[in-house]
């Protein structure tokens, strides 16, 4: 049996239109820990769309801050959640420019349209501070990650932090699909862009940090702790 994995993610507010949109597209609510009604783009079948959203459904609709990891020996789940709570109490929410439907390789995600300096520094700080909770990557996970076309710096980050896309390699995004067939993605992109148009001008406020747990690799992640960002985060460019 595999060990549980944990992650620290930014999720839109549960009452927001963005949360409703994202959870409908992938068909899973990680706060509730259950699948729900699925948005099916015109011209595609339910089976096709569920197949193409299987990967993001495993993780839930989110923006990665600390990528999935197993706990290092000597740490407990309660300690992790408590430390995230203490961190959040000293940091203010971040306000991001509106997101846009974007192609990243063969998948589709919502990405920030403006400068990312503040959120990148915020994510970098959390990755560094919480790296002590992370067990070293298993040979399986290291091999799985190195299948990607990583550069030298990304390989270094993978070994140091368990994830190659941290610090200056980080890109804030919220995944909507897995890898799409070449012939399917243009239509899927256009339909997602159309569906997202009603809320495309909304600013995203990162007001909470969520700790998620995956009991085993065949199960989806679910939220086990959600804490508010509360105080002014002056050192990393937070807004007043």
Brief synopsis:
This protein has about 240 residues and is α+β, with helices and mostly antiparallel strands. The chain has helices spanning about 15-25, 45-50, 55-60, 75-90, 115-130, 140-145, 150-160, 185-195, and strands spanning about 5-10, 30, 35, 65-70, 95, 100-105, 105-110, 175, 205, 210-215, 220-230. About 30% of the residues lie in helices and about 20% in strands.
Report on the structure:
The chain is an alpha+beta fold. The chain has a single domain, classed as Alpha-Beta Complex (Cyclic Phosphodiesterase, Chain: A). Helices cover 32% and strands 22% of the residues. The chain has eight helices and eleven strands. The strands form four sheets. Strands 4-1-10-11 form a four-stranded antiparallel beta sheet, covered by helices on one side. It has a three-stranded antiparallel beta sheet with strand order 6-7-8, covered by helices on one side. A hairpin with a 2-residue loop joins strand 6 (99-104) and strand 7. The radius of gyration is 17 Å and the shape is globular.
């Amino acid at each position: 049996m595999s060990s549980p994995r944990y992650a620290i993610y930014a999720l839109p507010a549960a009452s927001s239109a963005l949360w409703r949109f994202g959870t409908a597209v992938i068909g899973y609510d990680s706060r509730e820990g259950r699948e729900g009604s699925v948005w099916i783009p015109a011209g595609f079948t339910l089976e096709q769309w569920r197949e193409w959203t299987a990967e993001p459904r495993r993780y839930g609709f989110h923006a990665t801050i600390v990528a999935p990891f197993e706990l290092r020996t000597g740490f407990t789940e309660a300690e992790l959640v408590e430390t995230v709570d203490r961190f959040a109490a000293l940091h203010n929410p971040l306000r991001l420019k509106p997101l846009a439907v974007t192609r990243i390789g063969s998948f589709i995600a919502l990405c920030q349209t403006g400068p990312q300096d503040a959120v990148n520094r915020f994510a970098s700080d959390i990755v560094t501070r919480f790296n002590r909770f992370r067990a070293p990557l298993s040979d399986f996970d290291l091999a799985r990650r190195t299948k990607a076309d990583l550069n030298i710096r990304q390989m270094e980050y993978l070994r140091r932090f368990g994830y190659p896309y941290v610090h200056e390699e980080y890109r804030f995004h919220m995944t909507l699909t897995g890898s799409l067939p070449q012939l399917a993605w243009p239509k899927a992109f256009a339909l997602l862009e159309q569906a997202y148009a009603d809320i495309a001008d909304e600013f995203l406020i990162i007001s909470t940090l969520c700790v998620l747990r995956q009991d085993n690799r065949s199960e989806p992640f679910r939220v086990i702790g959600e804490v508010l960002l509360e105080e002014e985060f002056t050192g990393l460019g937070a807004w007043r």
